[in-house]
Design brief:
Layout: E1 3-6, H1 11-23, E2 28-32, E3 52-56, H2 62-72, E4 76-79, H3 86-91, H4 94-116, H5 120-125, E5 127-133, H6 158-177, E6 181-186, E7 188-190, H7 199-208, E8 213-216, E9 222-227, H8 228-241, E10 247-250, E11 255-257, H9 258-272, E12 284-287, H10 302-308, H11 316-329, H12 331-337, H13 340-350
Parallel strand pairs: 1-2, 1-4, 2-3, 4-5, 5-6, 6-10, 7-9, 8-12
Antiparallel strand pairs: 9-11
Bound molecules: nicotinamide-adenine-dinucleotide and 2'deoxy-thymidine-5'-diphospho-alpha-D-glucose (DAU).
2'deoxy-thymidine-5'-diphospho-alpha-D-glucose (DAU) binds near residues 85, 187, 198 and 199.
Length: about 350
Amino acid sequence: MTILVTGGAGFIGSNFVLDWLAHVGEPVVNLDALTYAGNLQNLASLEGNARHVFVQGDICDRPLVDRLLEEHQPRALLHFAAESHVDRSILGPAAFMRTNVEGTFTLLEAARAHWGRLPAAEKAGFRFHHVSTDEVYGSLAPDAPAFTEDHPYEPNSPYSASKAASDHMVRAWFHTYGMPVVTTNCSNNYGPYHFPEKLIPLMIVNALAGKPLPIYGDGQNVRDWLYVRDHCSAIRAVLEGGRLGETYNIGGWNEKTNLEIVHTICGLLDELKPDPAGPYSRLITYVKDRPGHDRRYAIDARKIERELGWRPAETFDTGIRKTVQWYLANGDWVANVQSGAYRDWVSAQYGEPA
Ligand code: NAD
Ligand code: DAU
């Protein structure tokens, strides 16, 4: 029994691979292109572990994907690989269309050919698990009910449009070809190995460096935050017990405004690593809003709880404390990801000198 994971060197993928090997133990083949967001340091603890086979490669490379499926005969393909940052999709959408749309198409076609050749018993057990996002549902009004799985698709950014396209393909491959697929749509994750271009790690890293904490617009946009290891346990639950062709929303029941998040981080840093210059909140700076900025996301996670008994283990208070502590303890990891390419991004996005 083996699983094939794509994007397993990124934030969620690497947490998933580490947790999978700790909890399940089945071998993992990990296909990742190592873009700016992929980092083998996340998987350093697996060095020498024969149950983890890392392959650097592109999900758009059909011969490579065919070869991996043929060689390793995985019982499931878990598809995490993506371009994932909304701001980058606004500055340069092409990479999002290529990886998120063409890449998902390539994987679906390779998996379909492979699945079609399997003997009946293995064919019935095979799974294509597509990891997606709540952003495909668009933006909620302040008092609107949270997103259920039946909410219409209303993607608003190039990123969410590319993820919506990939979700639609996965659905179509089930309806047309009978492919054994499941899709999960998750809310905002946070935790260890989160690349510091995203809100929570960016705020921690900037605060520790004494840099401005850039809040887009009025800071009142709402996200529903989930500790990354809870996302990983939900994916394992859906992989094992999810109904074929279904989608499952995953969320933490933790709606917070961006300003609340940043004040919480500042408060934790004031407690854990006080700055003689004063409270970290002095660094909060309001900057130009993100174009097309979605106002609110919130996930109704009752379906996965009802059908599979999954609930998050962490509250926001426990998860954010663990996260801040992780960044304080892993300054080397932060220093290593802040490579030249990262500095170029910060300069393009926030107008700071590179
Ligand atoms: P990430 O950007 O941290 O990691 C993406 C990984 O994919 C990287 O390791 C990168 O090298 C790899 N990759 C990119 N293009 C590739 C290609 N063409 N071929 C092979 N590998 C490639 O992303 P993440 O935050 O870990 O997100 C993982 C998945 O979860 C994505 O599909 C994303 O849409 C989804 N998701 C993310 C969140 C979140 O809050 N981060 C929430 C819900 C869903
Ligand atoms: O909802 C799930 C999605 O969450 C995932 O699909 C995406 O891959 C992931 O990146 C995330 O998207 P967001 O756009 O919600 O996350 P981000 O961390 O970029 O921003 C969170 C909020 O914080 C958002 O309202 C924008 C705001 N923000 C972000 C940055 C980077 C700021 O105010 N300042 C910033 O510098």
